[in-house]
Design a protein that fits this description.
This protein is α/β, with parallel strands linked by helices. 34% of the residues lie in helices and 22% in strands. The chain has a domain at 10-139 and 220-286: Alpha/Beta hydrolase fold, catalytic domain (Rossmann fold, 3-Layer(aba) Sandwich). The strands form two sheets. It has an eight-stranded mixed sheet with strand order 1-2-4-3-5-6-9-10, sandwiched between helices. The protein has a two-stranded antiparallel sheet with strand order 7-8. 37% of the residues are buried.
Length: 288
């Protein structure tokens, strides 16, 4: 096992066809020396981007995995569409990542990214070997509605300086759990973008355009997860607002191979930016 220091990713822009136009999706590619053990696709949360996985991707890459971390459209350095964000748009993003697929492909989805992943696998019948669902809200309800309201408020924020934007992120650092300062600084740098009115967080406010229609809507992703032909690890931090242990136990009666790690001191959602979390995921992906 290699725990060497930070590496740098290669980057690539992929054109995503959206009806009568194209949009550029920015992708970080962490390529190991030699033949990869497998490919790992990392899907960020709603307000995040592919750089959220820099720590984990570096670690997995140094342990032989090819790691692919996109900024899904409307996030990070990818194109902003201003409207029209829906599952079909995100499905096109994931289909475009197929050029990096190998003979064995794993997926890691944090929160909303895990939701998009399960919907994509259900819609397309695409194959996966192992899946890590990191604090994914598997069932809808009032807590998920409250999370959407928080994002809606945050999406309208503007800051006069980059330092002010970083101060805002620093004030929310507690929910990430223990993270080294250098790792947090890299995370924060990629969470801030400049604009005509100063600085803002690195996602398109228009991504929240369908939140009103989603309010109060019930959903249940557990039946989808039960049918996925892949080993699945559910990860939840000690302070998770969305874990549903009763639903997990019901699903385990159908899928006894469903792995669960919960009640860990890892933030909400777990940041995936500490060695213990990286080792947990490496162990799961490496297990026979």
């Amino acid at each position: 096992m290699d725990t060497a220091g930070p590496a740098e990713a290669l980057t690539q822009e992929i054109l995503i066809r959206l009806n009568n136009r194209y949009a550029a999706m920015y992708v970080r590619i962490w390529r190991p020396a030699g033949t990869p053990r497998a490919t790992v696709f990392c899907l960020h949360g709603f307000t995040g981007n592919g750089a959220d996985f820099d720590y984990l991707a570096t670690f997995l890459c140094r342990n032989g995995f090819l790691v692919i971390c996109p900024d899904l459209l409307g996030r990070g350095r990818s194109a902003y569409l201003d409207s029209g964000y829906d599952i079909n748009v995100y499905s096109r993003c994931l289909r475009a990542l197929g050029e990096f697929a190998g003979t064995e492909n794993h997926f890691i989805g944090t929160s909303w990214g895990g939701t998009i992943l399960l919907l994509f696998l259900h819609m397309t019948g695409s194959k996966a070997s192992k899946i890590v669902l990191n604090d994914v809200p598997m069932r809808g309800g009032s807590k998920v509605d409250a999370m959407r309201n928080e994002v809606l408020t945050e999406s309208a924020l503007a800051f006069p300086t980059r330092a002010a934007a970083k101060d805002y992120l620093s004030a929310t650092k507690a929910v990430m759990g223990p993270v080294e300062e250098t790792v947090f600084n890299r995370y924060a740098e990629n969470r801030i973008v400049s604009g005509p009115d100063g600085f803002r967080l690195a996602y398109d406010p228009a991504t929240t355009g369908n939140f009103g229609a989603l309010a109060g809507r019930e959903y249940d992703l557990f039946p989808m997860a039960a049918k996925v032909d892949a080993r699945i690890l559910l990860m939840y931090g000690r302070d998770s607002q969305v874990i549903d242990r009763q639903a997990i136990e019901r699903t385990r009666k159908v899928r006894p191979d469903l792995w669960l790690v919960d009640n860990i001191n890892a933030g909400d959602p777990p940041s995936l930016m500490t060695l213990d979390q990286a080792l947990l995921i490496l162990g799961f992906l490496s297990a026979a």
